[in-house]
Design goal:
Length: 265
């Protein structure tokens, strides 16, 4: 049996360490998605703590019980939408990159990132097991950025989920292109954006489940992030997309929604 669910993806850039401001932007996007009747919104990796290439992740870390997490719980309850957002978390003298789902019942489901830039630092939790997060009829699996390179982590979700969220910090596109002349930069970011869409389509098709992607868009002190977020059905078709943007002045938060068909599990 199958059924249709309404999901959303939002993109904005979390400013490093600006936890309260980042949280308010996340809530504004969630509110807009709720008004469109979405049941779930996916936001980028580390969108709450913020991320900057030049910053140590330990400097961005929130305590596990910080008030902004309570604010997101309350927003989820008030708006009646599940909010999937990311942050760096400190707990018991250790650190983890987390992507959490804030549920309308005011609970949080956490997924710990397993690998990637910055996680070689002592004190980071990097031994992660994929969890399945229930959001209504959805059995959501989260693959956080560089974790997509691990065949083992994909295998842990296979057959257990009916939708996948793929949040990323989106660093590769801009960092690899930032020193190019302007015309070449536009061309390269567009090229990498097209490659990202093709890869996402291949993942959705190979896994046989819808895929939601969320990347940051906007300027941080040392970097700019070009976006590229969207919703792809289980047959690999793009249902909604926020395309890449290489001109800083045009980088704005964005949101798209779509109905996707999921299998009952």
């Amino acid at each position: 049996m199958t059924q249709s669910v309404h999901v959303a993806t939002g993109q904005h850039v979390g400013q490093p360490g600006a936890w309260e401001r980042n949280t308010q932007t996340a809530i504004e996007l969630a509110s807009a998605a709720a008004r469109m009747s979405a049941e779930l919104i996916l936001l980028p990796e580390m969108t709450i703590s913020g991320f900057e290439v030049e910053a140590a992740l330990s400097d961005l870390a929130l305590p596990h019980d910080h008030a902004v997490l309570d604010q997101l719980c309350e927003a989820s309850a008030d708006l009646k939408i599940a909010i999937a957002a990311g942050w760096v978390e400190s707990r018991d003298a250790s650190l983890a990159v987390i992507h959490g789902v804030f549920h309308p019942d005011r609970t949080i489901s956490r997924q710990c990132k397993n690998s990637g830039t910055g996680l070689e630092t002592d004190g980071f939790h990097t031994q992660s097991t994929r969890v399945v997060i229930t959001v209504g009829p959805m059995r959501l699996g989260l693959i956080i950025c560089a974790d997509s390179c691990s065949d083992n982590l994909w295998k842990q979700l296979r057959g257990r989920v009916n939708i996948i969220g793929f949040p990323s910090a989106g660093s590769g596109q801009w960092i690899q292109s930032r020193d190019l002349p302007n015309d070449a930069l536009l061309e390269e970011v567009a090229h990498q954006g097209a490659a990202a869409r093709r890869r996402a389509q291949e993942i959705a098709l190979s896994e046989g489940v819808p895929l939601i992607l969320s990347n940051p868009v906007g300027k941080t002190p040392h970097t700019a992030w070009p976006g590229n977020s969207g919703i792809i059905d289980r047959d690999g078709h793009i249902l909604a997309w926020l395309p890449e943007e290489a001109v800083v002045e045009r980088m704005k938060p964005g949101l798209v929604t779509a109905q996707v068909v999921i299998d009952d599990i």
